[in-house]
Amino acid sequence: MTKQNVLITCCGKWAGMVCQMRSSMRLVPQLRAGQLYVADAEAITSAGVFADRQFVVPRIADENYISSLLKLCESAQIRVLVPLIDVDVMKLAPYAEEFRLRGTSIVAPTVEVGNLCLDKTEFNGFAERYGIRVPRSVEAASITEAQYPIFFKRRCGFGSIGSGIARNAEEALVELAKDPDLVFQEFFAESEFSVDAFISHTGSPVYAVQRCRDKVIGGEAVRSHTVKNSNIGDAALELLKALADQGLSGPVNLQMFASDPPAVFDVNPRLGSASVLSNAATGGKLFASVLQEACGGTAQSLSIDDYEEGMCLYRYLGDVFYRADGGSQQAMEPSASHEVKR
């Protein structure tokens, strides 16, 4: 039997990702008749209610996580596995070949490229070599002489955990005492932009959808709208080409300040949760590109900025209801409710 299903891991509350990924599957011949599954350590998740089926797997840190996913991908006929969070991406990346030999493609970068993107110190060195602007680093030894405020974040952190603003040397020293591996950088007051991009296996950027991050909570954009800014676009294309030169292919999320020139402050080699806006702005073709290349094809677009400008995302809280005895679940949508079988 030819594998034709897609599995999203650690999907949690992102029901929109499930619905859009399923729709984009219909644009890929190898997946058109397939189903969209999710896997999580929790027995019930919001995303799982909207998926065709949810599976329970060990937590990422569990020694049986990889072996459980390998078995699941075989039994559930998984053609493409899509991880959504950095920890999961880096956990799965070393096993890409093992999954491939079983007929499952993981949407993840190589270990080397993943480390380059997620290690802030390594990335800053890479950016300097390619002439890409990043926030100026403030060495720990120079904290008392720094111009405040300054921004701090974990060297290999994610989701804004451990990040913040130090408004004087005393605050910076307190944070440094908590985590000696913190990275300190100059503070930017300019607006934040994201670029949801896809780099083909040929090395060519296929899409680069620009979004203004209008409101961010816990590192996640809850309000965003698509734009076409020439400065952001030029900076994004320069960075994408540099990343492709390092061997990156697949989805990548770039985050930068709208300074002049723009300054890149984060690169995530995966689909970001708010990429649902970028996917909608491309008519589902962004996610379809991810799935198409995971199935061995070559993604193409009319142009790198072939998307609708001025499309807005406004996230809302939804509710999932289920019976405590493990019975049926219900997903409440804005216009109707329906019961979904586990």
3D architecture notes:
- The chain has helices at 15-25, 46-50, 65-75, 86-92, 96-100, 111-118, 120-130, 169-178, 230-245, 275-281, 285-294, and strands at 5-9, 36-40, 53-56, 78-83, 105-106, 137-138, 150-154, 164-166, 182-186, 192-199, 205-217, 220-227, 250-257, 263-268, 312-314, 319-322, 329-332, 337-340.
- The protein starts with a strand and ends with a strand.
- The protein has three domains: 5-108, 3-Layer(aba) Sandwich (Rossmann fold); 113-118 and 191-314, 2-Layer Sandwich (D-amino Acid Aminotransferase, Chain A, domain 1); 136-186, 2-Layer Sandwich (Dna Ligase, domain 1), CATH 3.30.1490.
- The protein is built from eleven helices and 18 strands.
- The longest helix is centred in the C-terminal third of the chain and has 16 residues, at 230-245.
- It is globular and about 65 Å long.
- With 342 residues, the chain is α+β, with helices and mostly antiparallel strands.
- A six-stranded antiparallel beta sheet has the order 14-13-10-11-12-15. A five-stranded parallel beta sheet has the order 3-2-1-4-5.
The whole-angstrom Rg is 20 Å
Output the CATH class name of the largest domain.
Alpha Beta
Unreliable stretches (pLDDT < 50, length at least 5) are 335-342
N-to-C SSE string, H for helix and E for strand: EHEHEHEHHEHHEEEHEEEEHEEHHEEEE
What is the structural class? alpha+beta
How many β-strands, per DSSP? Answer: 18
**Tally of discrete structural domains:** 3
